Structures are given as structure tokens and as C-alpha cells.
Amino acid sequence: MSPLEASAVDRIVLASGDHPDIDAGGCVMEWVSWLADEPHSDKPECVARSIDRFMINLNDSLPDDLRQQLLPLALVVIGTNTGRIEDERRRAYLAADWAVRDCLPLLLDRLGELRRDDRYAEWARRLRAHVAIVDVGTANSGRSLANEASGDLNLYAYAAYAYAAYAAYAAADAAAYADAAAAAYAAAAAAAYAYPAAYAAAYPYAYAAAYADAAARRRMCEVLLPGAIELVRRMAEVGRATSATAPQVSDEKRALVERSIASAPSIAA
């Protein structure tokens, strides 16, 4: 099949999952491949693997309407694959820091409200107060604190929260070994799994009607999404000043992205 021409597309709509070609639809990373004139894939060569993994998990975790808020990032992430291990290492620490000091505390806030237990708020406070994860020492410390919180609150008894707690722990654990070439990718990938957990944050409280649980899960997505988007932007800035020339997006495709953003009023570019 010949490549899809920008002139044939009225609006970009982000879909979940993977697709055989862009004519059948695309997740955010498949559209990135198209924008960058790369072969159809959800792993475009121009994007850092850590960012790609995080974006795929984010894309597939969101309701259809909220997923469209990822569209402005499609242009942001192009050219982030600098090929430097040190850049992926820095992205790993950013991802681990988000999982430990942002995502997990927000989930604990929600669980504390549902259970009316002040211990969750105290653990959320301690996690937020942890020093920024920027190296092996702080990654080890963050990993230990996330694991301690999980054990004290028995999060492993709640599937959705255990998912997030494990993600925070695994992200920091992988970042702690960031001297290995693959550790940066592993850390960002682990942190990415905290977001799907947020989507199911109210699942253990299925005593309420199904629609109420869906509303609670959606609310967690809305709460976490701004921080996740900001994380992607920060990860994209790593190595940007010294990166090789990024693929040039045609004016026609760039205009299409802008039109698609404008047609969805909820998107903040």
C-alpha cells in the first residue's frame, strides 16, 4: 500500500493498540513514525526507546477522549533518539523520580480518601519529600522508601495499587543500575506501568456500581495525565541541545497536527 498522504487526512485521531498500517489508524507512536516519514511502526527510530515505551503505555491506558491530549507530544518527541547511553540514563532517573515522588503519592492520596486512613497521606507526604532521584544513591533510596510504603500499607493485597507500587519500586531499582546500557530503558518502562495502575485505581472498591468505578478511574487518569505529559516533555529535552539533526516534519504534516489539536478543545498544546 502506498504511504498515506497528508492531504488525504482530515484529522489525526489517536487510537489504542497497534495497527497494520496508518490507514487503519494509529497510536501516538505510529503517528510519530508517519510524521517523521519512517516505515510504519510503534517504535520509530527517531524517538528514544525510554520515551517510546512510556508513550505506548500512556496511549493505551487512557480513555479515547483523554488520549487525544497526547497529540502535541507527537512533534515534541521526534529527534530524541540521540544514541547516547548517558541521555537514556538521565531519562531513567526522571522516570523513576516521577513514579516514586509523583505517581505513587497521588495514588496513595486516593486510597487514603477511600479508606479514610491517615497513614496513606503520611506515606504520600514522605514519598513527595524524598530527594529528587538523579543518581544511583537517590534511586536506591527511593526504591527502598517505595517498597517500605508498600509493605506497611499492605498494597500488595490490592491488585491495582500493587501494580503502581511495584512500578515505582522497579523503576528506581532499574535506575539504580543505570551504569548498564539497558537499565535506562528498563527504568522508564517500569515507571510507565504506574500509569495503567492509575486507570484502575478504584478497582479494589468494586462494591460501588460499575459506572461509579469507571468515573473514579477516569478521575485518576485526569489527575495523573498533566504530570505524565510534563514528564515526557522533560525527558524529550535531555540531549536536545547537542542532538544530531532531527527528522524534518513537512509543513503539510505539521499543519495537520495543528488542525487536529485545534479541533479538540480539551487539548492544551
Question: Mind explaining what this structure looks like?
Answer:
By secondary structure, this protein is an all-alpha fold. It folds into two domains: 6-47 and 59-81 and 245-262, no CATH class; 85-238, no CATH class. Helices cover 61% and strands 0% of the residues. The model is unreliable at 197-212 (pLDDT under 50).
Write the layout of secondary structure elements.
Blueprint: H1 28-35, H2 49-61, H3 64-67, H4 71-76, H5 85-115, H6 118-129, H7 136-152, H8 159-176, H9 183-192, H10 194-199, H11 210-237, H12 251-262
Helix pairs in contact: 2-9, 2-11, 5-6, 5-7, 5-8, 5-9, 5-11, 7-8, 8-9
Order of helices and strands: HHHHHHHHHHHH
Secondary structure tally: strands: 0
Q: What are the segments in which pLDDT stays under 50 over at least 5 consecutive residues?
A: 197-212
What portion of the residues fall into strands of 2 or more residues?
A: under 5%
Terminal CA distance reads 32 Å
Largest sheet: none
- The radius of gyration is 19 Å
Q: Helix fraction?
A: 55-70%
- Average residue pLDDT: 80
Category from helices, strands and their pairing: mainly alpha
Molecular shape: globular
Q: How many discrete domains? A: 2
| Tally of helical segments | 12
